[in-house]
Amino acid sequence: MDKKPITPEGQKRLREEVEFLKNIKRQEIIDAISEARAHGDLKENAEYHAAREEQGLNEARIRELEEALSLATVVEYKDIEVTDIVVFGATVSIRDLDSEKELTYQIVGESEANIEFNTISFTTPIARALIKKSTGDIVEVDTPGGLKEYEITKIKII
To answer: Is pTM beyond 0.85 here?
Structure first.
């Protein structure tokens, strides 16, 4: 298996999530299963079945995170001497040339990408278009809605 890049912050978040799932969530689920068992007939006990299902999902997420961490190689992007081009770990502000809408994303590893936190995987079409470009450059991105053009307005290595 190939190693996959991850930011130091992303590695820390994934480790914290594994610790929470193993040490807190797992025990909460075990307690819920025990309580549901105490209610009697397991065949018709919806609480028991829901808790068992939650247990399976929790264990699957733990395995997924542990695998991601085992394949991760931390990229210390803050040590990179480049500040004027987009690199892994950079936070990039772009302007949609059609709508004039400003967007800001940090380019991160696949396992830590989360659009809710404005982090996108370096493997996405938009991130691939941005890598190695500079402030003021126009990039074209082939999106499901067609070709989009963005101007890079700011690059930060935080």
So the answer is: no
